[in-house]
Amino acid sequence: MIAILSSPDSFHNKSEMDKIRNIIKEEGSGIIHYEVKSFMDIGEALSRFKECNVSAIVIVGGQALSSATFEYMIDKKPFGKEQIPLSVLSGDEERFISQSFGATSAHAYQDLPHVLRKHKTGRLLDHLVKAPLIKVEGVMHVGKLYGLYFCTGEIISRKSLFKRTLYRFGLKHFIQNYTTIVSLLYKAYIGSHSSDDIKDMIRINRNQRGAVVGRYFMVILSSLDRMFLGTKFPEKKKADTLNFISVENTKDAIMNTGKRMLKGNYSDTMLPGHVITEIEHARLVFNKQFVVDGCFYETDLSGELLISASDSLTFIRLD
């Protein structure tokens, strides 16, 4: 038996939730579905899943639902030491994590039949990956949240990057990626300049090392193996650390980043204006928005975020 955890509030279009209910109804037995009306219901849902001895949990909803579920599983450990594999099918435009684990459709209800078919044929758990969660503390109106991917810097002004499919095969998608990267880098290259305005600066402390202050094209911390547009991170040497990449907002650094994106992967070779490494935690101080798992947030009034690697969970790859 597998469990499906969903929240109608994750969808702006309520018909999407109706489609999900109909798909589950058509599939019949072997599925327990729990719709949470508030995040306070997550504990009850996970307790019921444990009683039913489910083999996997499919989270169908936005980043808020997945973050709250991650938090409950890390803090309360409802399944004890057992690792229950998770599949995340994000709702609406927050598709970043779904796509990172192999989803290719535009909507969660389009990916759900694929998940259920793999379950019926016994192949759902064929490809599992463990990844440490990222804990982000200092978030406006939230306090802390959990996710798998963090990004800030000038790059987040291009919101479409975090709403599109990460990678697909085929010439058409290759051309789309190529033109998107060229357009992104051209605008960043033209717009890059030095600034003494403190509002443009980001202060970074990595692993309690000395602080570095600068103006950045992007700063990324991630448990995933790919960033936006499908560019691969360097292979991690330690399983419980986070990938860290910072790129200064200078013409040379932006051009070097462009070359890596066009090749489809970052190497761990040090480049001017770049820091590429693995870390356990970082403290960032800035006044910009930031992205966690494709969803946009703001810092609280202090402007300070503490980002750290938390416990690992097991995730299901769909590809």
**Strand order within the widest beta sheet:** 6-5-16-13-8-9
Shape assignment: globular
Radius of gyration: 20 Å
For the terminal residues, how far apart are their CA atoms?
A: 21 Å
Class computed from helices, strands and strand pairing: alpha+beta
- Low-pLDDT runs: none
Average pLDDT, all residues: 88
Largest sheet, in brief, is: 6 strands, antiparallel
Which sequence of SSEs, written as H and E, runs from N to C? EHEHEHEHHEEEHEEEEHEEEEE
Report helical residue fraction.
Answer: 25-40%
User: How many DSSP-defined strands?
Assistant: 16
| Binned strand content | 25-35%
Supply the number of helical segments.
7
What does this structure look like?
By secondary structure, this protein is α+β, with helices and mostly antiparallel strands. Helix content is 28%, strand content 29%. It has helices at 14-27, 42-51, 63-75, 96-100, 108-120, 171-191, 251-263, and strands spanning 2-6, 31-35, 57-61, 86-90, 128-139, 143-147, 149-152, 202-206, 212-214, 216-222, 242-248, 274-279, 281-285, 290-292, 295-297, 304-316. The chain has a 6-stranded antiparallel β-sheet.
